[in-house]
Amino acid sequence: MTTSPAEPPAVELSGVGRTYPGGVTALQDVDLLIHRGELAAILGPSGSGKSTMLNLLGTLDRPTTGSVRIDGCDVSAMSDRELSALRAASIGFVFQQFHLSPGRSATENVADGLLYTGTRRRERLRRSAEALHRVGLGHRLDHAPHELSGGERQRVAIARAVVGEPVLLLADEPTGNLDSVSGASILELLVRLNAAGTTVLVITHDSGVARQLPRRIEIRDGRLVSDSAVPERVGSR
Amino acid sequence: MRVRRLSVADLARLGMVGLFARPLRVFLSALGIAIGIGAMLAVVGISASSTAELDRTLSRLGTNMLIVTPGKTLSGKNAELPAEATAMVSRIGPVEAVAATGRVPAYVYRNDHIAPGETNSIEVLAVDRDLPGTVRATVSAGSWLTPATVDYPAVVLGAVAAQRLDVRTPGTRVWLGGHWYAVQGVLAPVPLAPELDRAALVGWGAAREYAGFDGHPTTVYLRAVESQVEAVRGVLGRTANPQAPMEVGISRPSDALTAKRAADDTLTALLLGLSAVALLVGGVGVANTMVISVLERRSEIGLRRALGAKRSHVRIQFLNEALLLSALGGAGGVILGVLATGAYALSRGWPVVVPGWASAGGLGATLMIGALAGVYPAMRASRVAPAEALSAP
Lengths: 237, 393
Ligand SMILES: Nc1ncnc2c1ncn2[C@@H]1O[C@H](COP(=O)(O)OP(=O)(O)O)[C@@H](O)[C@H]1O
Ligand SMILES: [Mg+2]
Hints:
The complex is a heterodimer of chains A (237) and B (393). By secondary structure, chain A is of the alpha/beta class. Chain A has helices at 50-57, 80-90, 106-111, 121-134, 150-162, 180-195, 207-211, and strands spanning 11-19, 25-34, 39-43, 65-70, 73-74, 91-94, 168-172, 199-204, 215-220, 223-227. Chain B has two domains: 8-59 and 258-391, no CATH class; 64-252, no CATH class. Helices cover 54% and strands 14% of the residues of chain B.
């Protein structure tokens, strides 16, 4: 894993905590550094705070304590508009439920990944088709989600996440709704995308999935309990 | 890293996709708007068509006719015009045509077996030969009184009188004041002098000769130069009855038609108000559809936020959908309104008039309603917290 010093780390959490309005503390005191080009699993049982973590990493939510830096940008200092722009340009999301829009072709769905980046439609469609080829769906460009298998739908979602060539790809239980064969091929695809340069974070409760990834970060009850990479400490506690 | 605005084409496409994902619901809420706009446009269109018809009628009949009647004496009895009133009126400079009718104290029956009481409310009037030219009456069957028949027992029936007597063919005889009269012709309805429709008309001379007519006119019809009508009106009383000018009644029958238009305007305003309520209900339907849409599409909103949509992108997307939805309804409504106006006007033989301002106004109102109906749902959509929206099932 090579990182040029000029490039900021993809993710930098220091002392991050998130307490929900009801009083539930879903995340507490998390320090984490993920460099560009890494491939890591965030592993934990249900309710341990994984999705909360994904929302913070994806700038969909803000921490109640600590600081979150994505690609060098301090999230707490940014406005909602700026965060939207950051997500459009630098972060790709893959969800367990795919979240594809029904009745529209795979190409249209993937092109939505560029809709808010100011790219012209022609270019969006061209890059969408390209991304679909990259995830092995070159033969399914015009198919609507309901004409695709679960594994294929997740590939479309992944293509949508990477069509904008984000710095960071966040996948929340990407294999959660899939059988083991499709799940394995999705994981393989993520590994391949990582090899091509994308930083990939896979959130999972399945240690079988986590075991296949080079770095495993484990959380339990909102705390980071182990990190296979034993990363350097960031900031002070 | 700046996020650019969506192009108009992108917005339109987004709106279409959002709407056509739920075609039935969209159709029904657009229909609500369409009914409102259609009703408003039909009300305005039918009223405009009716006005156009009235204008056409007025220009055909002319507005320069005046009618002189004897009126009442100060003690409330029926007054009488002097026998020479017609001749005196014709001497007023700007008067172009004059004709008189006089009530004859006789009744007309289909034959001599009918009981005397069954008069069918048909008046017998003595007439000048100039009458059709002055009131612009035409015959629908047979002919008008000729110089040869005007002093003989011949009669021309008004449209309603002919119907009541069940006489259609000229040449038939009717029993009038104890004599047989040959029906010479039947008049078409006379819009400016509907009293002629219910009358049996006999020549002035014949009426005096056979029916005991006293020769006093009871109605004098006259046409004046259009610009002088009011001036003529001012001197008519003195001219027609110099002995008692105040008794004389003067009217301008085209005023009645114009007054009818004013009455129609009141009704139109009322109906327009009702249609506006329908349109408002349609607008509430659109708002309702949009609110439900926002609730149902939380995960789509969350996803779009994750893909980099700003709040304003989400807001404009939903606002745009609401506008598109009501514009759809508005366009449908304009079509409905034009069809309804056309069908009604044509069925009555009126010219079809749908004012352009009404169609434009309808579409404008639609867009305003769409904006109003969409603004709250759009605000709600844009305030959805992305993380929560994505975790929604
Ligand atoms: N919006 C929320 N409001 C209140 N509590 C929440 C909210 N989201 C998650 N939680 C709570 O935070 C904890 C962590 O949830 P989550 O991050 O979803 O865990 P995981 O994804 O690992 O299952 C849980 O106890 C959950 O009930
Ligand atoms: Mg979760």
